[in-house]
Predict the 3D structure of the following.
Amino acid sequence: MRKIIKLTPLIIFLLADLFAGNALGQEKTKKQERSKRDAEKHRMRSRDSLLRTFNRADTSINAFLQRVEHYTSTFNQINNSLSEGLDTGDVSTGFPAVMRRINKIDSLTKTHKSSTLRYLAVLRDNLDHLQDKLTGWQDDLEAVSAKLIANQHELIKFDKDTSLNIVPYDSVIRSTYFEQRGITRHLYYVTDTTNRANLVKVNQLQDKVTVAFTRVMDATDQIDLKIRRFAARAFAGEADNILKPSLQVADFKTALKGTVRLNGILYNYFIKSDTTIHYICLFSLLIMLGWVFYVRRRTLRSIENPDEILGQANYIRRNPLVSALLVTVAIVPYFYDHPPVVFLETLFLVSMICTLILIKRHFLPETFNFLCGLFLLGIIYGASNLFIQITNIDRYVILLLSIISIISGWIIFKSAKKTSSDHIPHTCTALRIFIGLHIISLILNLTGRFSLAKIIGITAVFNLWFAVILFFVVQIIIQGLFLQFQVKKDSKSIIAYLDYALLQKKFRKVLITLATLLWLFFLLQNLNIDDWVADMVSDLLSQQRTVGGASFTFSGFVTFILVVWLSSIVSKVISYFYDVSSQRVSDLSIAKKKNQTSALLIRIGVFSLGFLLAVAASGFPLEKLTIIISAFGVGIGFGLQNIVNNLVSGIILAFEKPIQIGDLIEVDNKTGRMKEIGIRSSKIMTSDGAEVIIPNGDLISQHVINWTLSNNYRRIDLVINVAHGMDINKVENILRDIISTHAEVIQTPTPLIFIDKYSDESVDFKMLFWVIADNTKALLLKSDLMAKIYGAFDEKCVEIPSDKKDVNLRFPDGVPVLSIASKVQAGEKKKDTNKTDPGQAQ
């Protein structure tokens, strides 16, 4: 035991040493394995790092090459755009001529101290044209300059791009990169040089145009100053009375030569410019000629009695060429912007000649003779109007023309007052104004205010002539429309379904309104205050005004009202054409006709869109609409309940469609066919031709009987009375035969015939059958059936109860009938004796 105890420590030590050795060996093995793993990871990281380095280098080089290609493409695009040339050819070629005109106007402005207002207005119009042209050139040059500056920015980006200076490590990539970059850099230098040269050229043109524009503005200011001085001098008087020659006038020959030369220059320049508008005017003339000759020829060929129709279009019938020329020449001057006066007077001369040709054949010789004299006055006044300087001869001529105008106007006025129906309408009123203006012109000329006298005299003659011209223009257009309607009357064109009388009335009002506006504009032109009035109205409309913190302009209100008015007109036109289309589809089914109710939705949509456009166009802030809506709410709460109720009811009728156009309805003891469903009210046409206007609210709130809601059938009840003792089966068979063979009676559902009741006088049969829902046709059908039944009863010996009645009298027993009859006769004789003869009473 002791030996075992002594050996135990030794054994433990040996075992410990053995386990320690194993542990050390295992740890050493683990360290070796860990070092191998770390080495492999390190080598893997190195390989990955090398690959990432290679990839990163390749990626950067590719990015550089792509950037170089981008610059190359950009420079090529710039070169291509520059090679096409700059859009400055018109400026370069037209600028010398503009400078010559500016220099000429400067020299004319500094001379001719006795210039007329017309002369100053001509210079001002030329300056306005030059200003518009220079403004357009400035805009064009600004656009070209902006494009060149954008090109220069792209070129500067290339020059400042430092990333292009990186050198690749790979020799192969390096050579390719340097070669491509060199090509791009050379392209950059070429493009930059060309772009800079063009930019300098454009900047020089801009400087020249700016200098010219400044000179035009300075000249315009000088002309405006001269016009103001002229106006002050004209009202104060340029000269003494007519008997004393004025010293502030020019020589007549010099003024005549200057006038001819200046107007010739202006006329030639005008003809060479505005070529597009010239072609438009020529095209308008061709269209007018083609339309007039077309309707005239079609009337002669396609209408049975062309003389009767053409008798209502005498101007087109006898003078188609003159009529078309007059309409065109009277309108085309307004296609131009401030044309020269010599051009306007040329067209005005043609208009006067055409008017005289029409007047000669259709009016009294007195009217023709007066207008011939007025034609001569117009020529002389027109020549005087072209003068650029004041002369004494011109003053005396204007004085003489005023006297002649007053005398001739008074003579024709007395004639027109006696026989007004034989003259042009409103002749007396026009002559009163004509004579009054010439009296004013005469007084002004005598007191030394020649310029005002000349302006008023020219205005009186020209505006009287223009009123006559516009009268014939309106008549010719109306006659052309009349012939157009007559030609298309029997065709399937939409014109055949239009109401010419209504269209003529509306269109005549429109033409008269336009003619009145043209006449007023012509009046302002002749008075030389058209630009002043235009500027004043423009300032009035565009000036900002503030009320209660809200800013607005009158132009916004005018725009709002105009857009809403136009939208209402468009909605009415759409509704009218829907009515026309319903006339054209009269042979289609009822379901298709009832789609006309959708016209109300379109009208509401058009009006709503017009209102929104009006709000947007007027510049009214949409957030302020809540104020208007609140005001409407207050108004609805106090006094607009019925109106809003009808409006909302109209919308409900449009969407729900319980009643549609063409339905046969009965409301408030009124029966008729629905003719129109409006926004506020609707119309029904009764059988007696009356149009009943019913508020839409009544159609929604009241009980409405719609006979044609789901179908177009209506049941008719017809009662037939026969006398007692007739064969019931025989009567029933007669009625059944008649109703089953009638073409107007619908056989499905089957008509019913039965005995309705007995009475003391008759046996009543009732017939129930279906027909197409139409009040007039239903009444005619009942009449036809009753006539046939009466004839059949008479033929088959069926008696109809009579109103005659048999009275059975019973007398008391013992009273003889003769005694009663004698008493009756005695009573009648007594009554006769009580009556007094008027002759005997006297």
In short: The chain is about 70% helix and 5% strand. The first strand starts at residue 545 and ends at 547. The chain has a mean pLDDT of 76. The radius of gyration is 51 Å.
